[in-house]
Amino acid sequence: MTEAHERMLGGEPLRIANDHGCFGCGKLNDFGLQMEFRENPEGDGVWARVVPAARFEGYMGVIHGGVITAMLDEVMAWSLYRDETWGMTAQMSVRFRKPVIVGEPVIATGHVVSQRGRLFETRGELRREADGVLLADATATFMRVSQQQADAWNKRYNGDLAATGGEGA
């Protein structure tokens, strides 16, 4: 593990009070990634440690590119959620640099680069935990959802937590 990743370990976990079936982060999805996100203590954004399972294999021993894309999409979306913004992916570009190996731990990081109106530019990276080698990176544009949709999702996923400002539930 690199020094940068050691510093990153820690940070407050981002929580959703009510579990759900999201492929990326839902604990109720037995077939999903079940990613858990933490605030990056060195600034904006979030990070997650993932040990990609064999069920996500594409070519023998290598994680499928669609699953890698999903990891990057998730970590960038959660970088918005860290700032209490609900958004959806409008556009995304991924660069696959090196294979992501089944069972080899990786660190996914995401942060918001800029905002213009309802649009947020984000960046995500996937690095091998052991040595910090960049495996894949992405940029994406997210669009903030309507206040009505944000309120509905906040109620669905955070319930009493949303009403109490994070206390209780």
**Order of H and E elements:** HEEHEEEEHH
> CATH H-level name... which superfamily?
Hotdog Thioesterase
Radius of gyration: 16 Å
CATH topology category name: Thiol Ester Dehydrase, Chain A
* Overall helicity: 10-25%
Molecular shape = globular
How does this structure look, described?
There is one protein chain. This protein has a single domain (3-159), classed as Roll (Thiol Ester Dehydrase, Chain A). The protein contains four helices and six strands, in the order αββαββββαα. It is an alpha+beta fold. It has helices at residues 3-8, 65-82, 147-158, 160-164; strands at 38-39, 46-50, 87-96, 106-116, 119-128, 134-144. It is globular, with a radius of gyration of 16 Å. It has a six-stranded antiparallel β-sheet, covered by helices on one side.
Describe this protein with a few key phrases:
169 residues, alpha+beta, Thiol Ester Dehydrase, Chain A, 6-stranded antiparallel beta sheet, globular, disordered C terminus
Helices, strands, pairings?
Blueprint: H1 3-8, E1 38-39, E2 46-50, H2 65-82, E3 87-96, E4 106-116, E5 119-128, E6 134-144, H3 147-158, H4 160-164
Antiparallel strand pairs: 1-2, 2-4, 3-6, 4-5, 5-6
Provide a short characterization of the protein structure.
The protein has 169 residues and is α+β, with helices and mostly antiparallel strands.
